Task: inverse folding
């Protein structure tokens, strides 16, 4: 196996982790939210925060490194339009993902407090959830477009 194919494998693996973790986190948070059970939401959000820190963050940091190495190893110019579009979309995805991390932490904390006090979830939780849900579409959409650009290289 050449260095190029090893780096390419790691790059594809990073994309899989980002998309897989993002999908899983969205699914489990949505399912927990639908229960309206503060304790269950708090436990789920706690795991989501950990998963984002371990898996998503690792992959997000790995992608530019492996992508840069792939460019060097293949002598691909950064001026390729599909590559430039991918980089712009990567920034867009990041601009939506970073606030989502903080929303998840706050939702976890609000749900924990409500569970500890045997109270209903506060209105702030629901505001954050709606925002978190809305931020997921452009963030995840940008990531899906990046994947398509990497595979199709349409321009």
Result:
């Amino acid at each position: 196996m050449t260095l190029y194919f090893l780096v390419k494998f790691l790059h594809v693996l990073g994309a899989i982790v980002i998309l897989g973790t993002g999908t899983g986190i969205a699914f489990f948070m949505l399912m927990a939210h639908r229960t309206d059970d503060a304790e269950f939401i708090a436990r789920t959000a706690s795991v989501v925060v950990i998963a984002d820190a371990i898996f998503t963050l690792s992959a997000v940091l790995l992608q530019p490194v492996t992508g840069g190495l792939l460019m060097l190893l293949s002598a691909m110019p950064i001026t390729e339009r599909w590559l430039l579009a991918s980089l712009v979309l990567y920034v867009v995805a990041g601009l939506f993902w970073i606030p989502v991390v903080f929303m998840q932490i706050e939702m976890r904390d609000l749900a924990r407090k409500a569970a500890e006090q045997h109270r209903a979830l506060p209105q702030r939780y629901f505001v954050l959830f709606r925002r978190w849900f809305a931020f997921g579409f452009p963030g995840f959409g940008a990531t899906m477009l990046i994947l398509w650009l990497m595979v199709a290289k349409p321009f």
Observations:
- The chain has a mean pLDDT of 98.
